[in-house]
């Protein structure tokens, strides 16, 4: 039975995994998929624990996602948020829809009564039946913060603000000097995380944000080491196509850590497992085929294929390419090889 482990952020990781599950349903129905999800974006809002990436993955795989937005629930209302605002509380820059709020209330209740985040996630997934095992990267709170390079509203230069405030309130346009994962030193991988990497037949880094999604997961002590030592192949899918983030502001994160916004630079940033990195294989878009020689020279087996997840069939086809690269087997002749 094939075991596949995916390290995911929100939208990109969720959509890729949905395509992977669709492909496996047709080709390998006994395969199991574990998704290790970034929790660096988690925060307390109005007394509720909000886990943006876990919820995006859970709703996307469970059929409850707002497809246009890529996060939250469809047919939402904002009545509770409006009431909270009427008390002069809440966050004007972060919307919590009424249906979504129910998820946060249940999760927060479970956490307050002593459940771990893993247990709370498992409980929520009993309703959503995502078709994959969802594991938070850690049960210990780790929250990504951005250090402001300039003053912004009530914040001063040098101050750390929560990543979601930088991302959602400031649309990543206020310059920052770096990211800090608050709580990381004392964080351990959640139960099952290291095992899911070590016992997998294939580990996939989907097209998620390389800095604040996959980068944060890899920073949890022990996870990067597990990726480097697993007998499974580790393959990644570039979130960058033709020098641009497909959606969102991943380029702002890459700029901040001094990595160019290109499929080649991100692949080299992850690095080859033959060196000090985490990748055996790397999928770049057809338009980025020029990056193949440099990636090959760095010890990464790179292949150029269509990377746009336009709909269910193109996303399933992309997942199939990741599986093929992971098998390091024969590839159809039409594709360019490193
Ligand atoms: P977030 O937590 O919701 O920001 O989601 P992720 O961490 O999973 O990463 C989102 C990233 O996925 C975006 O910044 C894009 O670079 C990438 N992405 C989104 N859609 C596509 C797509 O269709 N193809 C590829 N290759 N990347 C995509
Ligand atoms: Ca996220």
TrEMBL record:
Its EC number is 2.7.8.28. GO terms for molecular function: LPPG:FO 2-phospho-L-lactate transferase activity; magnesium ion binding. The keyword NADP does not apply. It holds the Pfam family CofD. Keywords: Magnesium, Transferase. PANTHER family: 2-PHOSPHO-L-LACTATE TRANSFERASE. NCBIfam families: F420_cofD (TIGR01819). HAMAP family: CofD. This is 2-phospho-L-lactate transferase. It comes from Cryobacterium cheniae.
